[in-house]
From TrEMBL, chain A:
Keywords: ATP-binding, Nucleotide-binding, Transport
Record-given protein name: Oligopeptide ABC transporter ATP-binding protein
Domain of life per record: Bacteria
Signal peptide per UniProt: none
UniProt key word ATP-binding: yes
Organism: Nocardiopsis ansamitocini
Pfam families referenced in this protein's UniProt entry, alphabetically: ABC_tran, oligo_HPY
GO biological process terms on file: peptide transport
Keyword Nucleotide-binding: yes
Automatic annotation (TrEMBL), chain B:
Keyword Heme among UniProt keywords: no
SUPFAM superfamilies: MetI-like
Protein name from the UniProt record: Peptide ABC transporter permease
Species in which this protein is naturally found: Nocardiopsis ansamitocini
Record membrane topology: Multi-pass membrane protein
UniProtKB/TrEMBL annotation, chain C:
Keyword Transport set for record: yes
Residue span(s) of domain ABC transporter: 3-250
GO biological process: peptide transport
Coiled-coil parts of chain: none
Protein name, per record: Dipeptide/oligopeptide/nickel ABC transporter ATP-binding protein
Superkingdom per UniProt: Bacteria
Cell inner membrane as UniProt keyword: no
SUPFAM superfamilies: P-loop containing nucleoside triphosphate hydrolases (SSF52540)
NCBIfam families assigned to the protein according to its UniProt record, in alphabetical order: oligo_HPY (TIGR01727)
GO MF, any single term: ATP hydrolysis activity
Length: 312, 304, 316
C-alpha cells in the first residue's frame, strides 16, 4: 500500500525564504495494489506535487508517505533509493520531453539495465524487453533503434510504461500521461493501465480530465488548491458528488449526451433534496479543516460553509 | 498581443511539424553547417593558421630569436615577412607566435571552460544552498579587476612560460561561462527526462554528464570558442605590456618588441603588421565561426 | 452564405518536400453559424484556420479559393489580406494569452494594436468598455499588466479585442484547451453570446475536444489527414455519424455521466498517414474496418442527407 499520511508540501519563497507557499495541505489517502486511484484537480491544485513526492523527486514537508509500511523519506543513499525505484515508478505528461532528444528512444531501457540488470546476459535481457513491449502491445521491430521524434506520442508513452515494467514494480505514478495524446489512441493507453491493474499493480492516475478518471479508476480523490475536498469510490464521487467544487467540475465538463444546462439542473435538483448536507456544513466564514468527514461509507468530503459556491 | 494575427511560430504548432522535421537533429546540423558561409570561412582561416603554427616551425633550422640575417630587411622572396632590426626572421617569429597563440587559446580557454562548466552545471542542477555558494564565488571572481591581478601575479614571477600564462587566464575568465551554463542547466534540469534519469537510479554526476550536457553540446562548444578568443586577446594584452613569456615567442611579444625598438618611428611596418593581423584574424574568425554556429544550431536564425 | 471555401490547398515546405497539410477542403459556413472544427493533430484543422488569416513563412498556397460574404479573399497575397484581417476575419490564436507583452498595460497594448490597424482607439473605447463589462471584466483591467490577470481573464480580453470591429468571421483556435474545466465552460458560452449579439456573424471553433464543441456549435466538421471527413449538425455528428472515422473516434471517447465498470472502449488501431507523400484514395483506408477496393479512389465530399456531408464510399 502506498499511503499518504497527512502529507503537506510547503515552499519557502521570497528573499531568505521569508514567505511560505502551501502547495499541498495534509493530504490523506492511499493507493492499494490492484487498484487505480484517480487524483483529479485543475492546474495549481497540487496534484502533480503529490505524485512527485511519491516518486521522491520532491521532498515531503510534513507528514509521511509510506510504501508497504516504510517511510520513504528515510530511504537515504543511492542503493536504498534504487531499491525503492525498483518497486515504484512514474510516467510523465509530455512523452516528447520524457526522452532525451539526442538519444534513441530505447535508451530508457538501457538506463534501467545499466543501473539494475548489469549482470543479465544479452539474450535474457532482450527477452525481458520483448516481453515488456508485448505487454504494452508494441512491436519491437518498429520501436527499437528509433529516435523519439520518429515515434508517436502514444508509442512513446507505452514505451515508458514498458520501461517501468522491466523493474517488477508494484506501484505506478502516472502523471497526466494521456493528456498529450490524440483522442483515437489515448483510450488504448488507458486500457493498458486497466490491464496492469488486473495484474496487481497499484496505480496513482493523476489527471485534470474527469472523463478519464471516471473511465479507469476505482477510487477518486478530488484536490482543490492543495487540499483534498472529496474522495471515495469513483461511482460515488461521480454519481453522488457532495462538495460544491466537485459539483462545479461535473457541471463544467462537456458531455456527449447532455448539454451543460441539463447537467446543472440535475445537480441542483439533487442538492435541494439532499438532507445530509447539514451534517458537514460549517458556519459561513469558518476555515475548512483538513480532516475530511465521512458522509457515506468510504465517501469522504471536506466540510464547507453551507450555501457556499466553490470559487473558481 | 496579437489578437488579429497568428504568431509567426517557426514550428507552427503540432500540425504538420511531426512530418516537417526532417532527419535526426545531428545530421540536420551537419547539413546546415556545410552550407553556412560564415562557419566555412571562419574555420578555413583558423584552420590554415593552425596548420601554419603547427607545421611551419619544423621547417626552420633557427629559433625565433636567433639573429640570422641582415637587420631591417623588407619582405622578400628569401625572408617572406622581412627581418627585424636585430636580423631575426619575422616569418619564423610569426609561425612560432601563431603556435603559442593557439596554445594559450586551447589551454586558457580549456581551463576556463572546465571550471565554468563544472561550477555552472553543479549550481544549475543542484540548486539550493550549493547554488548560492557557487554563485557567490562566481560573482567575486567576476568583479575581480582581472588585468590588475594578472599584472601583479605576472610581475612577481621570475620565469614566465606560456603554460603559466594560460593558467592565469583560465582561472580568471570562467565566471561568465559559469553563469551562462548555470542558467541553461537550470532550465534543462526541470525536464521530464532528467526526472526519468533520477527514477532510473542515476547519480548526480551521471545525470549531468549523460543527460544535461549532451543537450547543450552546441552551447558548450560556443562557450569554449568564446573563451578561446578571450584568452588569445588577454594573452596578447599581457604580452604587449611586457608581461609575456620570458622565453619563446608570441604574437603579442612581437608587437611589444616592435614598439619597444621603435619600429613605428622607423617605418618598419613589416615588424608589427603581421602579428597584429594574425591576432585579429584568429579572434575575428573565431567570432565569425561562433555566429555561424549559432545559425546552424538555432533553427530560428537559419535562412530557408 | 458567409464563408465559402473551395478546394483549398496549402502545403508546408520542408527540406524533404511538401507536406500536404491541407488538401482541398470544400465547405460553406452559413450566416450566424458556429462550426466546430475537430480533428487530431496533423488533421489540417490548424492549417485551415491559419490560412484564412495569414500564411506563415513555410506555408505555401497551392490552389483553391476562399470567399467571404461574396468577396474573394486573396489568401495568397499577404499585403492584400490586410484589408480583411481583424476587420473582416479575426482570429483568437492558440497561445494568445501567453503572447501578451508583459511590459505593457492591457489598455496600452490594445490601443497600440488598434492604431497599427488604422483604427482610432477613441472611436471604439466606449464599445470596448461595454463589451469588457459584458464578459464580466471591470474596465480597470485596462490599467493592469497581463501578469496580474488569470488565464480566463486574459482569454476574455483577447476575445473582446479580436471581435471589437465586428468581424464577419471569427476563428477561435483551441481557445479553451489551456484553461481549466471550470473556466472552459464560461469562455465557451461567451463565444455563443458573441454570436447571439451579432459581434461576429459566424464562427469557426477549432478544437481537439468534440464534446466541447457539441455543447456550443451548430455544426461540426471533422477533418482527417488534411481532408474533410464529415460535416453535419452537431447532434447528428454525435448521434448518427456516417464516416467510419467519426464513428470510431466518438466511440473511443470516455465521458462522465456513464458508469464503465468492466466495459471497455476501443481506440482506432494504427496512426494517421504521413502527409509528405500521402496515400492515394481515402486517407483513412489503412485504419478503416470497412475499407475495400473502391476506397483506392478518393471519395468525394458529398451531401448524403440535407446538411450532412460525408467523404466515404460506404456512407450511403
Amino acid at each position: 500500500m502506498l499511503r499518504f499520511d497527512r502529507v503537506s508540501k510547503v515552499y519557502n519563497v521570497g528573499s531568505f525564504g521569508s514567505d511560505r507557499l502551501t502547495a499541498v495541505r495534509e493530504a490523506d489517502f492511499e493507493v492499494r495494489r490492484g487498484e487505480v486511484v484517480a487524483l483529479i484537480g485543475e492546474s495549481g491544485s497540487g496534484k502533480s506535487t503529490l505524485g512527485k513526492m511519491a516518486l521522491r523527486i520532491a521532498s515531503v514537508s510534513q507528514g509521511t508517505i509510506t510504501c508497504d509500511g516504510t517511510d520513504i523519506s528515510t530511504l537515504r543513499g543511492n542503493r536504498r533509493l534504487k531499491d525503492y525505484y525498483r518497486r515504484v515508478q512514474g510516467v510523465f505528461q509530455d512523452p516528447f520531453s520524457s526522452y532525451n532528444p539526442v538519444f534513441k528512444a530505447d535508451r530508457v531501457f538501457a538506463m534501467v539495465r545499466g543501473e539494475y540488470y548489469r549482470d543479465v546476459p544479452d539474450a535474457q535481457w532482450r527477452a525481458k524487453v520483448h516481453a515488456a513491449l508485448e505487454t504494452v502491445r508494441l512491436d519491437p521491430q518498429q520501436i527499437l533503434g528509433k529516435y523519439p521524434h520518429q515515434l508517436s506520442g502514444g508509442q512513446l508513452q507505452r514505451l515508458l510504461i514498458a520501461r517501468a515494467l522491466l523493474l517488477d514494480i508494484d506501484y505506478l505514478v502516472a502523471d497526466e500521461i494521456i493528456s498529450m495524446l490524440d483522442a483515437s489512441t489515448r483510450i488504448d493507453v488507458l486500457n493498458l493501465l486497466g490491464d496492469l491493474k488486473a495484474r496487481g499493480l497499484g496505480i496513482l492516475f493523476i489527471t485534470h480530465d474527469l472523463a478519464l478518471g471516471n473511465y479507469i479508476s476505482d477510487e477518486t480523490v478530488i484536490v482543490h488548491k492543495g487540499s483534498i475536498v472529496e474522495r471515495g469510490r469513483t461511482e460515488k464521487v461521480f454519481g453522488d458528488p457532495l462538495h460544491p467544487y466537485t459539483k462545479k467540475l461535473l457541471s463544467s465538463v462537456p458531455q456527449f449526451h447532455k448539454k451543460w444546462e441539463e447537467v446543472e439542473a440535475e445537480l441542483k435538483a439533487r442538492e435541494a433534496a439532499d438532507t445530509r448536507i447539514r451534517d458537514y456544513h460549517l458556519p459561513v466564514g469558518q476555515e475548512p479543516p483538513a480532516q475530511l468527514f465521512e458522509a457515506d461509507e468510504g465517501h469522504f468530503v471536506q466540510p464547507f460553509p453551507h450555501g457556499a459556491r466553490a470559487s473558481a | 498581443m496579437t489578437a488579429a494575427q497568428p504568431l509567426p511560430d517557426p514550428l507552427a504548432g503540432p500540425e504538420g511539424t511531426a512530418a516537417a522535421l526532417p532527419e535526426a537533429p545531428r545530421r540536420e546540423a551537419l547539413y546546415f553547417a556545410l552550407r553556412n558561409k560564415k562557419l566555412l570561412i571562419g574555420s578555413a582561416i583558423v584552420g590554415s593558421l593552425l596548420l601554419l603554427g603547427i607545421l611551419a616551425p619544423f621547417f626552420f633550422q633557427n629559433g625565433p630569436n636567433e639573429r640570422i640575417a641582415p637587420p631591417g630587411l623588407e619582405p622578400s622572396a628569401q625572408y617572406w615577412f622581412g627581418t627585424t632590426q636585430f636580423g631575426q626572421d619575422i616569418f619564423v617569429q610569426f609561425a612560432h607566435g601563431v603556435r603559442s597563440t593557439f596554445l594559450v587559446g586551447v589551454l586558457g580557454g580549456g581551463i576556463g571552460a572546465v571550471i565554468g562548466m563544472t561550477v555552472g552545471f553543479v549550481a544549475g542542477y543542484k540548486g539550493g544552498w550549493i547554488d548560492e555558494i557557487l554563485n557567490m564565488i562566481t560573482n567575486v571572481v567576476l568583479v575581480l579587476p582581472t588585468l590588475a591581478v594578472l599584472l601583479i601575479i605576472a610581475a612577481y614571477l621570475e620565469s614566465r612560460g606560456i603554460v603559466m600564462q594560460s593558467l592565469f587566464i583560465g582561472l580568471t575568465t570562467w565566471p561568465w561561462a559559469a553563469r551562462a551554463i548555470r542558467s541553461q542547466a537550470l532550465s534543462l534540469s526541470s525536464r521530464d527526462y532528467v526526472d526519468l534519469a533520477r527514477l532510473s537510479g542515476f547519480r548526480t554526476h551521471k545525470i549531468i554528464l549523460r543527460d544535461i550536457a549532451p543537450n547543450m553540446s552546441s552551447y558548450l562548444f560556443m562557450t569554449f570558442i568564446l573563451l578561446f578568443g578571450g584568452s588569445v586577446l588577454a594573452a596578447a594584452g599581457l604580452d604587449f605590456v611586457g608581461l609575456g613569456p620570458t622565453d619563446g615567442m608570441s604574437l603579442g611579444l612581437m608587437m611589444h618588441q616592435a614598439v619597444k625598438w621603435g619600429a613605428l618611428q622607423l617605418g618598419v611596418w613589416w615588424w608589427f603588421v603581421p602579428p597584429g593581423l594574425g591576432i585579429t584574424a584568429i579572434v575575428g574568425s573565431l567570432y565569425i565561426m561562433n555566429v555561424g554556429l549559432d545559425e546552424v544550431f538555432n533553427p530560428k536564425l537559419r535562412e530557408m | 452564405m458567409s464563408l465559402k471555401v473551395s478546394d483549398l490547398r496549402v502545403y508546408y515546405r520542408t527540406l524533404r518536400g511538401d507536406v500536404h497539410a491541407l488538401d482541398g477542403p470544400t465547405f460553406t459556413l452559413a450566416d450566424g453559424e458556429i462550426m466546430g472544427l475537430a480533428g487530431e493533430s496533423g488533421s489540417g484543422k490548424s492549417t485551415l484556420s491559419k490560412s484564412l488569416i495569414r500564411l506563415d513563412g513555410r506555408m505555401r498556397y497551392v490552389g483553391g479559393s476562399v470567399e467571404l460574404d461574396g468577396t474573394e479573399v486573396p489568401i495568397w497575397d499577404d499585403a492584400a489580406m490586410n484589408r480583411f484581417r481583424f476587420k473582416e476575419i479575426s482570429i483568437i490564436p492558440q497561445y494568445s494569452m501567453s503572447a501578451m507583452n508583459p511590459t505593457r498595460k492591457i489598455g496600452v497594448m490594445i490601443a497600440e494594436l488598434l492604431e497599427s490597424r488604422g483604427v482610432r482607439f477613441k472611436t471604439v473605447r466606449e464599445e470596448l468598455h461595454r463589451r469588457l463589462e459584458l464578459v464580466g471584466l471591470d474596465t480597470e483591467v485596462l490599467k493592469r499588466y497581463p501578469i496580474e490577470l488569470s488565464g480566463g481573464m486574459k482569454q476574455r480580453v483577447v476575445m473582446v479585442l479580436s471581435t471589437i470591429l465586428d468581424p464577419s468571421l471569427l476563428i477561435a483556435d483551441e481557445v479553451t484547451s489551456a484553461l481549466d474545466v471550470s473556466t472552459q465552460r464560461a469562455v465557451a458560452e461567451m463565444l455563443v453570446e458573441f454570436r447571439d449579439r451579432r459581434f461576429v456573424k459566424s464562427m469557426v471553433v477549432v478544437t481537439h475536444d468534440i464534446s466541447l464543441v457539441y455543447q456550443i456549435a451548430d455544426s461540426i466538421m471533422v477533418m482527417y489527414a488534411g481532408r474533410l471527413a464529415e460535416k453535419a449538425p452537431a447532434r447528428t455528428i454525435i448521434e448518427a455519424p456516417r464516416h467510419p472515422y467519426t464513428r470510431m473516434l466518438i466511440s473511443a471517447l470516455p465521458e462522465v455521466g456513464v458508469t464503465y465498470a468492466e466495459q471497455r472502449l476501443t481506440g482506432i488501431p494504427g496512426s494517421p498517414p504521413g502527409l509528405l507523400d500521402p496515400p492515394k484514395g481515402c486517407r483513412f483506408r489503412a485504419r478503416c474496418p470497412l475499407a475495400s477496393d473502391e476506397c483506392a479512389t478518393e471519395p468525394p465530399f458529398v451531401e448524403v442527407t440535407p446538411d450532412h456531408h460525408v467523404a466515404c464510399w460506404k456512407a450511403e
